Amino acid sequence: MASIRLSTYKSSNTKYITRYMNRLKSILLGSLLAVASITAISQNANAAEFKSDRDRFNHDTVAFNNSKVQHERQVREQRARELRERQAREQRARELRERQARQLRERQAREQRARELRERQARFHH
Questions:
Q1: Calpha distance 30→6 (Å, rounded)
Q2: Domain segments of the chain: what residues?
Q3: Which of 22, 30, 40, 43 is surrounded by the fewest CB atoms within 10 Å?
Q4: Neighbouring residues of 37: CB distance < 8 A, sequence distance ≥ 6
Q5: What does pLDDT average to in each consecutive run of 10 residues of the chain (126 residues)?
């Protein structure tokens, strides 16, 4: 990404500064969302791994048989499947929020340009 040169903006031209600030806010919010998601995924994976380890060590060796192994494998696969599905849902929700935020920024930019055009036309006609 090219370096952002705020010093080149004219201090009286708030349009450029506003765009810069909106871009900066968007980048920061996206980064924050990514960090929060990665943290949540990591914590969930660690918790599932800890529970799996604990379950393995606490089994009753007398009752241990193939059906128990198969059941545990199915439970692990189910948990992994649910985790993948939840992560996919979270990813879709993140993408939706980002798309909505981008659309809002674009709409606001269009409205700002229209306002500026109306103001220029009003000054020109008066």
A1: 21
A2: 14-125
A3: 43
A4: 90, 94
A5: 49 72 84 80 70 61 69 92 94 94 95 94 84
